[in-house]
Every structure is written in C-alpha cells, then in structure tokens.
Amino acid sequence: xxxxxxxxxxxxxxxxxxxxxxxxxxxxxxxxxxxxxxxxxxxxxxxxxxxxxxxxxxxxxxxxxxxxxxxxxxxxxxxxxxxxxxxxxxxxxxxxxxxxxxxxxxxxxxxxxxxxxxxxxxxxxxxxxxxxxxxxxxxxxxxxxxxxxxxxxxxxxxxxxxxxxxxxxxxxxxxxxxxxxxxxxxxxxxxxxxxxxxxxxxxxxxxxxxxxxxxxxxxxxxxxxxxxxxxxxxxxxxxxxxxxxxxxxxxxxxxxxxxxxxxxxxxxxxxxxxxxxxxxxxxxxxxxxxxxxxxxxxxxxxxxxxxxxxxxxxxxxxxxxxxxxxxxxxxxxxxxxxxxxxxxxxxxxxxxxxxxxxxxxxxxxxxxxxxxxxxxxxxxxxxxxxxxxxxxxxxxxxxxxxxxxxxxxxxxxxxxxxxxxxxxxxxxxxxx
Length: 432
What we know:
By secondary structure, this protein is α/β, with parallel strands linked by helices. About 45% of the residues lie in helices and about 20% in strands. It has helices spanning about 10-15, 35-50, 65-70, 75-80, 85-95, 115-125, 140-150, 165, 175-185, 190, 195-220, 225-235, 245-255, 260-275, 300-310, 315-330, 380-390, 420-425, and strands at about 25, 55-60, 105-110, 130-135, 155, 240, 275-285, 290-300, 335-345, 350-365, 365-375, 400-405, 410, 415-420. The strands form 2 sheets. Strands 6-8-7-9-10-11-12-14-13 form a 9-stranded mixed beta sheet. The chain has a 5-stranded parallel beta sheet with strand order 2-3-4-1-5, sandwiched between helices. The mean pLDDT is about 90.
C-alpha cells in the first residue's frame, strides 16, 4: 500500500479558489506532486463533498491512454514534435458535458496541448465549468497565461515537500529528519523510497531522464555538456553571489571554454523556467533600490542539488540557507538578498565603505521581515557579527535570526527575534 502524503496547505489554496471565475494554474518542477495534488487529493475532496464523478473531467496530456480518447498517439506526437490537437480535445470535453450542472475540468501538463491559451480562454466563458491545470515550465505556461488572460489566470506554485510535510511520513525524530531532508530533499518519489542508495539513484535518474532531457528538448539547446557544467558550478556554489560574466570566467579558467555570458544567461533562464532554480536579487535596504547583478541562486530541492555533485559537498550552512529560502517562498514571500551600505573610519582616519549583508529580505503586502540564517551562534562575538547589519537598518520591521542551535523562541535586548530552524520549519507562522 502506497503511503499518502497530505498536502493540506495546497489543497486549501485550491478550495479557496473554487469557482472563482479564473483558471487555476498549478506550477512547479516536474515530479513535485502537481498531478497527485490535482487528480487525487483535490478530486477526492470534490467527491467527498458530493460532486458526481461524471462531473469531474480529468485529462493528462502526457498520458498515452488519455490521448487515445481524443484520437491522438503519444509516440506520434513525440516523433512529429507536435502538440495535441485542440479541436479534438474540445470535442471530447463537450461530449462529457451532458447537462447544465457544474463541471470540474482537471488538466495535467496543459503546455502539451497546442494553442492551450486560446482553449482555456474559451472555457472562461462557460459559467458551469471550473478549470484547473498543471504545467512544468514557466516560459510556456505562467508567463503566457499572464499575458493571454490579462489577470484571469490564478497561479498556485507547488514546491517539493516542506519539512513539515516530510515529517508527516518520516519515522524518526526531527533532528534526524532534518539531516535527511537537507541531504535527500523533498521530492515525494524520493521521500517514499527506502534506503540511501535507492534515494540517491532516484535523484540521479530524475536529473538525467527527466529534468535535463526536458530542458534540452523544450528549449532546443545544442550543447547539453555546457548545461551540465553550468549546473555543476551552480550546485557547488549554491547561495553565493554570481552573474553570467563571473560564470563565464569560471568556464574559461576551469573548463577552457569559450562560452559567452549571453549563452550562460540563456541557460540560467531555462533552469529557472523549469523551476529547478530560483534566484534572489540584491536589494539596497537604505537606498530602497534593486541591484541587477550579481544574484544568488537556490535549488528548488536540496536533494537535487546534492545529487548533481554526487553528494560530495554537504555544507550544512549553505543547505540550511537553501531550505530556509524555499520555505519562505512556499509561504508566499517575495525574497531578496539585502545589503546595507556603511561607511566606517579605519585606523588611519580614512573612510572605508563596505556592504553588510542580510540573508533574506521578505516582503508580503505591507509586511517585511529581515532574516539571518546562522548555523550556530557559539559566543557573543558571533552574535554581534550576525546582528551587525540589523543595527544599521533604520526602519522598525521585524528582524529575525534562524539558527540550528537548540534555543527557545525569544527576543534579545535589541528586539531581535531568535528561533531555531526546527521550530521555524514546523511552524513558519512563528516568525510573524
């Protein structure tokens, strides 16, 4: 019997948006659980509240069986490098709607349907049709929907399992759990595997057979080796400031490659569009302005990052920062890297200018939180180092330190909130 992982956080988001007149768009990296959320968890919710099975129309465009229902063949589509015929699909949906009652249309991997934007736009005009779709690529889905629908698409970003979701099916305590979570991540298929070798093998297979192949094919990339090399470099320096020019220099010195900064930027865009990577811009807190480059890149899942470099670099400080970043994004924050410019006198009486860094500047509506990720704070000197940027910030938004140290949630004499990472990940609302 397969263990079910509850994803109530996302189910509630779907329930809140039910019959709101918009296309509900579930996005996220492949194999993070979009199909299961839509076709099992949400469908069971609809059935549980009395919706007739005949009024729930499901269709997966990457399913050979479903494509046969509309006279399409998955092998032919792949061989001919084309998408499913929209006319055939619309005729199928029309044949399923036999009365005037409310129907729920649950569509998986919608980007594999030709002219899907126009098809969905047409369904918006049907008052008895509530539409939910999934997709795994931002370039072919989210960005197009925003343009085509002019605000009529409602996006729900799905992430791999949060630590709280992971712990709901993990057999050990939270300390062992976080160590495994940071190492192997939260891709549901991997979490449900038994044994370290099996988990590692699954992660490597996902990269080789799903993610890389999909990115290369979808974007028509000619040099897969360059993409592989870029992924390895980003994996080795996750959470470090970088830009295409700096990465180009790394390619030249390490790989003796003549790759251009423009090509590197194209690859980075492809990796972001596939939801594998996410980037955080730098934000000048005093100047209230964004700095275009350099940026920090984080993996959507630490297990995928670790697998990319064969689990050789297990730096808990960087992995902890990546996990915190993903949790903040999952909670709906816009997350930037903060800088605080300061001018200090040196021993010679001159002025030295430098930039202090705040790991995360988190915005949601009118609320803002400044967060430092500190693996350990063993003494007063380390604490002073962590809070120094906070002291230079002149506004009164909440300032937070998240640490791996086992400490109770508390405020220090500077009004800075300190919380251990276990409490934060199991209850993110504790920082609000």
